[in-house]
Amino acid sequence: MVELIVSPHPIDQETTELLAVGFFEDERPLRLEAGFVDGCLNGIISSRLAQGFMTGELGEITLIPATSQIQADKVLFVGLGPVTGFSYGRIRELTQRVLEVCMGLQVRDVAMAFPRPRGFVVEWDKLMEVMIEGIGLVQERRERPLHIRWHLIGGGDHYDQILQGMETARQILRDSFPIQLSREVSPPAET
Predict the structure, then answer these.
(1) Domain ranges in the chain?
(2) Long-range contacts for 155-160 (Cβ within 8 Å, ≥24 apart)?
(3) Residues 19, 12: Cα–Cα separation, whole Å
(4) pLDDT of 65
(5) Which strands make up the sheet holding 16-23, listed edge to edge?
(6) 166-174 long-range contacts, Cβ below 8 Å, gap at least 24?
(7) Is 80 in contact with 94 (CB distance < 8 Å)?
(8) Which fold has domain 2-183?
(9) pLDDT digits (tens, 9 = 90+) for 12-66
């Protein structure tokens, strides 16, 4: 069963085995979630980029142990290629790549923040549709069903659109694999 969970938590407070973060090869300094996570990791990604050990080339992956500032066990940085090439197809590829890494590492709980390059307006229903298509493509190559919990960071205010995208993907894929969508609720603010 694939369980998709729309999370209200900030990226550094999402408790998970693996936190996946995409970044672009031509966007420096790192922005948004990638820049924030790099800061939580004491700038290790910026340092590796400056030294040429990482580039952000499409499909590049770098696995790093998390620090105490992040609630994940590991952080996976995934290269997204150039910003100008970003598309929903790239999100499908990102989903597939992250899922393949999870299967190889036997990770069953992953959180991912979707990249939002400047000028790209996220249509959450379309994002969910291509993400589920990516999961379906990985499932087709496996003999056994996938078992993974996937936390979606940043979509909390768009649950209805995400649900619509999931239903569209289910119709396209003809319910070819079990999938469930849920939403975590933020704990009440302390007074």
Answers:
(1) 2-183
(2) 155/6, 155/7, 155/114, 155/124, 155/127, 156/6, 156/7, 156/8, 156/183, 156/186, 158/124, 159/6, 159/183
(3) 9
(4) 94
(5) 61-65, 72-79, 16-23, 109-113, 148-153, 2-7, 179-183
(6) 166/4, 166/128, 166/129, 166/132, 168/125, 168/129, 169/128, 169/129, 169/131, 169/132, 169/133, 169/136, 170/132, 172/129, 172/133, 173/132, 173/133, 173/136
(7) yes
(8) Leucine Aminopeptidase, subunit E; domain 1 (3.40.220)
(9) 888 999 999 999 999 899 988 899 999 999 999 999 999 999 999 999 999 999 9
Alpha-carbon separation of residue 4 from 63, 131, 162 (angstroms)? 22, 10, 10
Per-residue pLDDT of 119-172, as tens digits, reads 677 788 888 888 888 988 888 888 888 889 988 887 767 778 887 887 887 777
Residue 189 has pLDDT above 60, yes or no: no
What's the pLDDT score for residue 175? 65
